[in-house]
């Protein structure tokens, strides 16, 4: 429990330090920080979109394979039924 508390305190301390440093920054430094955050946000959004597209592709491939196997099973059942 103390490890979690210490980690949380460290995180809060880092956040407070970052906020203090940001407040003392020049307008140019503040803009650079905003630009970095926007770039990071854009990269995360792109990663999320890429992962979503990949998951959809995999799901589609699985669905196609399942349909293919179902059709093969149906055809095999028909062959067995028609050729006793």
Question: Can you give a write-up of this model?
Answer:
The chain is an all-alpha fold. It has a domain at 26-82. The protein is built from 2 helices and no strands. It is elongated and about 85 Å long. It starts with a helix and ends with a helix.
N→C terminal distance = 70 Å
Order of helices and strands: HH
Radius of gyration: 28 Å
Average pLDDT: 92
What overall geometry do the principal axes of the alpha carbons give? Answer: elongated
> Which residues sit in consecutive blocks of at least 5 with pLDDT less than 50?
none
Q: Number of helix segments?
A: 2
What's this entry about, in short?
This protein has 2 helices and no strands. It has helices spanning 2-23, 27-82.
Task: Walk me through the topology.
Layout (H helix, E strand, L loop, with lengths): L1 H22 L3 H56 L2
Task: Jot down its keywords.
elongated; mainly alpha; 84 residues
């Amino acid at each position: 429990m103390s490890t979690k508390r210490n980690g949380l305190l460290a995180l809060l301390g880092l956040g407070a330090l970052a906020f203090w440093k940001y407040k003392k920054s020049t307008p140019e430094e503040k803009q650079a920080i905003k630009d970095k955050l926007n770039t990071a946000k854009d990269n995360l959004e792109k990663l999320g979109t890429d992962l979503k597209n990949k998951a959809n592709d995999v799901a589609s491939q699985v669905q196609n394979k399942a349909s293919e196997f179902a059709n093969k099973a149906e055809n095999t059942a028909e062959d067995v039924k028609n050729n006793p």
